[in-house]
Amino acid sequence: MNSLMNTFLYHLAVVEGVTQLDLQPGKLGDRFVAIPRGPQAIFVGVAASDDAIVPSDTGAVWFPTPPRTTAPMAKPVILHFHPGGYVMGDVRTDATFAAQVLTERVGSHICMCLYRLASNPGGRFPAALQDALSAYHHLLQEIPASNIILSGDSAGGHIVIGLLRYIADHGVETGLTPPKGALLFSPAIDMLAPLEPGTITKTRNYNNDYLDPTFLSWGAKRFVSQNTESRPYMNPLGHPFKSPCSIWVFCGGCELFCDDVTDFVEQMKTVKGNEVELRVERLANHDIVFAGNLTGWRSQAEEAAYEAGRWISKLS
């Protein structure tokens, strides 16, 4: 299966396939939510650093159903950002397994957020961050921050790291209250390294994972901003910050990103007050919470989600 996944990603990168952002409900009905761009006041600093990339409307899909905000919820709502190297992914069709395990093991309702992809014009940084800010602001109008968990896998995890940094830097200024906690599943950490594909092939786990260097390089070249202010958002390594909430991190021991993830966790732990927990599935490859049903890691993905849910239950 690794070779099939690798081949698929390689060919997608070669043809530079485009995933259109579809903001129509279609057959999803009330499970689809249109998210208007947030108020201008929440877009400051790095979120307003590129005059060509401006806040836009986005959308999300609820799994299994939208929450009844008037009724008490036993578990928190999860705001989740999908994977895809910033160039692919559509929660309408791709997120079924991840949504299932997260709903059953972690949260009562999962809001799977769409965001602008860098494979489209106008999709480079900070487009995805702007969409994440709009989505979080939208949820805050109905659900208290104390009942929201931010979550993301792969590139989606990279979005969450950036969102946490942004809230740490600008939360008071923008009125964005910190969430209850954050989950990072196989997060992409360094978006600068893949600009040179040769750095990927030298990675310790290169031969153990299905991620393709051509695909990763395509995503990085489309996504990365040249604005120096954005560098800590491109690669948080060497730029630890005081997180506004506790963080739980999962990765596979055979992942391409494993060493980066471990370094990120250790660096974040050096910041006084940060609470960061890491769980490694020793032999797993990339993002089993998203693709474990395809790559033979279903039970381990379910166990990881269960542990994430147990961690959340202990948060004050």
Instruction: Detail the poorly predicted runs.
Output: none
Number of β-strand runs: 8
If you average the pLDDT, what whole number results? Answer: 94
CATH superfamily: Alpha/Beta hydrolase fold, catalytic domain
Largest sheet: number of strands, sense, barrel closure: 8 strands, mixed
Q: Can you tell me the overall shape?
A: globular
H/I helix tally: 11
CATH class: Alpha Beta
Q: DSSP strand (E) fraction? A: 5-15%
CATH architecture identity? 3-Layer(aba) Sandwich
Helix fraction by DSSP (H/I, runs of at least 4): 25-40%
What is the topology, as strand order, of the major beta sheet? Answer: 1-2-4-3-5-6-7-8
CATH topology: Rossmann fold
The number of domains: 1
Structural class: alpha/beta
Mind telling me the C-alpha Rg?
18 Å
The N- and C-terminal alpha carbons lie at a distance of 41 Å
